Amino acid sequence: MADAAPAGLPVVGPSSAPDDVLRVEHVAKSFGPITALRDINLHLRKGEVLGLLGDNGAGKSTLIKILCGFHRPSSGTMWLKGEPYTPKSVDEARARGIDTVFQDLALVDELSVYHNLFLRRERVLKPIPFLNNVLMRREARKALEETGINIPRLDVPVARLSGGQRQAIAVARTVSGDADVILLDEPLAAMGAKEGALILDLIARLKAEGEVSIIMILHNYVHVFQACDRVSLIQEGVIALDKATAETSIEELNDIVVEEYRRARQAARAEEAAAAAQAGDNGA
Ligand SMILES: Nc1ncnc2c1ncn2[C@@H]1O[C@H](COP(=O)(O)OP(=O)(O)OP(=O)(O)O)[C@@H](O)[C@H]1O
Ligand SMILES: [Mg+2]
After folding, report:
1. What are the tens digits of pLDDT across the range 35-46?
2. What's the 184 CA to ligand 2 centre distance in angstroms?
3. Check: CATH 3.40.30.10 for 28-248?
4. pTM higher than 0.90 for the full model?
């Protein structure tokens, strides 16, 4: 098991490069008594695809929500393209060039496919600002064709689509925008193998163009090794591993997770034993 930091030890921040688009230093986040993130150090280079890994509840979505302006960090600093970055809202983050597909998707069920694709950046006619539905429908068709995913009717409400189709729309909306940084929270979760492969192709195409930088949360290691240049693993509120995918392996990532389960089981047993001893003392 390589550079995974043992629990409880201070974690050294990942090396950063001059072409970092995004840099996160010592970011922590608590929700009342719950500490979701303890000390996150992270960087993202231009054109890079970073896979963010971690167990359920590790804090991956929380980190994405901090990066995209939805949550404020409890402490720590962030830098975007060399400038201090303290977004107060998702809109502000978007205006600075960071766009997000959330785990819970954020599509508007009652709106059509193409209206969802243009949510918050609706095309309007001039001089009277009616929605330019013809243009939006045409551009929506083009954006979806680029993903390769088949959504036959663009004028039906998205409530009538499958989970995978909804996810495809959310991803297509984001990648067809002009963001510098794209955050994807489990973009393949609801997708079948074929749709997932199309989204991975789309990400490979963006990577080849080298203009946008991507952070995506994935659970399937095969996808990680297929799509990502680098992986960062969150454990116990810190980045416990940060490596180029070429320098790690499915076995190494598995070992780390197995070790985490072993520690968690041990801690649970110790807690039980302490509680039993306490009960014994009280009974004596
Ligand atoms: N708004 C919130 N209020 C209170 N606690 C929260 C909130 N959001 C997240 N948490 C807590 O923070 C921790 C991290 O949650 P988060 O959703 O970031 O995990 P995750 O790594 O994305 O997990 P999953 O893989 O299941 O999506 C959890 O203990 C969760 O209960
Ligand atoms: Mg999550």
Report:
1. 999 999 999 999
2. 10
3. no
4. no
